[in-house]
Amino acid sequence: MTARAADRARYDRATAQLDAPVAIVDLEAFDANADDLVRRAGGKPIRVASKSVRCRALLERVLARDGFAGIMSFTLAESLWLARSGFDDVLLAYPSADRKAFTELAGDPKLAAAVTVMVDDPAQLRLIDEARQGGTEVLRVCLELDTSLKLLGGRVRVGARRSPLHSAAQVADLARAVARTPGFRLVGIMAYEGHIAGVGDAVAGRPVRSRAVRLMQAAARKELAQRRADVVRAVRAVAPDLEFVNGGGTGSVQHTAAEDAVTEIAAGSGLYVPRLFDNYTSFSGRPAALFAQPVVRRPGVGVVTVLGGGYPASGAAGPDRLPVPYLPEGLKYDPQEGPGEVQTPLLGSPADDLLIGDKVWFRHAKAGELCERFDVLRLVEGDEVTATVPTYRGEGHTFL
Questions:
Q1: Which residues pair with 141 in a beta bridge?
Q2: Would the pLDDT of 210 be above 80?
Q3: What is the C-alpha separation between 324 and 333, in angstroms, rounded?
Q4: 235 pLDDT higher than 90
Q5: 142-171 burial: b if 16+ Cβ within 10 Å, else e
Q6: Is 126 in a helix, a strand, or coil?
Q7: Cβ atoms of residues 50 and 268 within 8 Å
Q8: In whole angstroms, what separates CA 316 from the centre of its chain?
Q9: Which of 11, 36, 177, 211 is packed most tightly, with the most Cβ within 10 A?
C-alpha cells in the first residue's frame, strides 16, 4: 500500500460516519509542516497569515508552538474581530478603506494596541483621520515596500502590483509623513515577495519555464535583499524604534530569513500545503487540508460523478487554479466539463472500484479559500476525527 493509499484509508475510516461534502485537516501533517516552517526560518519568528488558515482554533494551535508569533490579517474587520478574540498582535497586510472599522479602532485602546494598519500612500492616512470621529487613540502603522523586480529601466516588471513605494527614498518620505502626523506611530515595514515566495520553480513537464523561474528568482532575491536593507536603514533614520521588518512567504522562508534586515517571516499556506506548493525545489510539505465529495453516479466504465466540487481559487484563471482529485490516485477531470458547481465527472480506472456514496478526496489549489466553502473543519488524528472546529464562515464571518 502506498503512503497516499494509507492516508485515504485513514481518512475514510475517520469520516465513515460523516456524509460528504466534508473538509478535514490532518493534524499530524499540519504540525509537521509547522515544524518545517520553523526550521526554515532559522530562529526568526513566523507571523501566521490568517487568510491561509481562516480558522481561529488552528490559528491558536500554531501560535502556541515555539517559533510562531503574531498574525498577519487580510481585512480590518477581521483584525478587530481577532483582537477582540484575544490575539494581541495583528498586522493588517493590506490598506483598508473601512471607515467604520477605523472609527472603532481609533476609539478603543485595547484594539489600537493590538492592531497595526498598513499604508503606502499619504491619502490613506487622511482617510483614517477623517474616519476617527473623535477617537483619539494613536494608531500603529506599517509601511509596505514594493518588492517587484524592475528590468530594462522599469519597462519590464516582475511581481505583484501592490505598493507604489519602490525605493528607499520613497519609503523614507512616507515614514516622515507618518512621523509628522499626530495620532500615528510608525512601527514596522512589510515587503511580500510574491514572485519569489508564491511562484513554483519546478513545474512538471515545463523544464524551460522552470529554469527561467529559478533564474528570475535568484536575480530578484539578490536585488531585493540589497534594496530592502537600504529601505530599513533609511526608515530607521526616521523611526529608530521600528519594531519589526516583515518579509517572506511560504515559498521563500529560508531565503528571506537569511537577510539581516528582516526580523520576522510571514507564512501561512505552508501549514495546509495546497496543490500550488507541489512545484517547489526549496521545500516539500505534507498535504494537510483536504475535502471530500460523494460519488453519486456511475455513468459508465471508468467514470464516476461526484456531487459539486467546482471550487476554483483566486488569481489568473487557468488549470492551476482548480482543485485536484487526490485520493484515490489516478482520477482526472473530464476535459469537456472540469469541476462543476453541482456535479463533477471523474475519469480513470480507479473509478471502477468506487461505489455510490464513497468519498473522493481533493486538494484545493490555494490554502485558506477552502474554508469559504465549509462551516467546519474535522480535525483528524490517526484514523479518528478528534475535534470539529468552525471556520471563519462557521462563525458567521465572510470578511471578503
A1: 117, 186
A2: no
A3: 8
A4: yes
A5: bbbbbbbbeeeeeeeebbeebbebbebebb
A6: helix
A7: yes
A8: 16
A9: 11
